[in-house]
């Protein structure tokens, strides 16, 4: 008797860390409701078609949108007018809860709106008008669009650095986040967001984003998936390895100073406006031998960068040099100077809030304003 053997292919289940991947872009098909038909004999009006909205919610995420894959999200149709009900009811609206930081794009690239706060609403597909005298009592179709929800993390601080510079180690040391940490590049393959908690209950959010490599501005590596998240942060925190960085044996070894200038150039090539954001440089792994000497050289070079910029190789030389508010040496793994950095970040964010607050006026300007008011009113008898 001949035995038949069947080959069974082993199906490997992805690790849990990879299955719970971060989603920052979703494409949806949305359709507004059709307006109801009017009743010309009695002057009846058809109901307005329902609309499709995106509504901002703190607890939402784009993974929830996967249930709409290959489906059309349709709002309700308006009710037709009839003898027993002259004015038809409007169609039911659809409200999609989306996370804060989402920008809604139409299929032709037009921006329909951005959602930055809880409760912010954007109409993505309007319902058709109901039948009335202006349209011969014929209800119209609603709008139909393919839209893209593009998420850009909203955080107070964005970590910028090359792979394996210690960004995730710093996030773990300074906040309550638990990012994946290992001694190899590209440990972080999805953005992590941590909350820095202070003794007086003040909270500051910090985003750890996938590491940059040379050419990120033209989408090499994780490219735009990283860089777009920097746009919504208030403060940039550059993290540089004191020993420099080398992606692979086929790549050039970059010194600590060169990695900082390369980060500067990648941001500049992606969006020059990013260089206007306030920035702090933290040089990591200061527990290594010879780190203090390298730190001193880098700090001095950045202080007098315009005197030495011509000596930097042209391929890594930025046209506009970012100005660092502070340069500090830390050891994220050992916890050295982490508390000092924590207080420094708070101070810089508070200074930024005061500068951008329209209600805060310089004392000299306030004095002139009050004197002008007194002169206009004239003396008063009290």
TrEMBL record:
Residues 155-350 form the OBG-type G domain. Keywords: GTP-binding, Nucleotide-binding. It comes from the Eukaryota. Residues 20-154 form the Obg domain. PROSITE patterns: G_OBG (PS51710), OBG (PS51883). One of its GO terms (biological process) is ribosome biogenesis. One of its GO terms (cellular component) is mitochondrion. GO terms for molecular function: GTP binding; GTPase activity. This is GTP-binding protein 10-like. It comes from Papilio xuthus (Asian swallowtail butterfly).
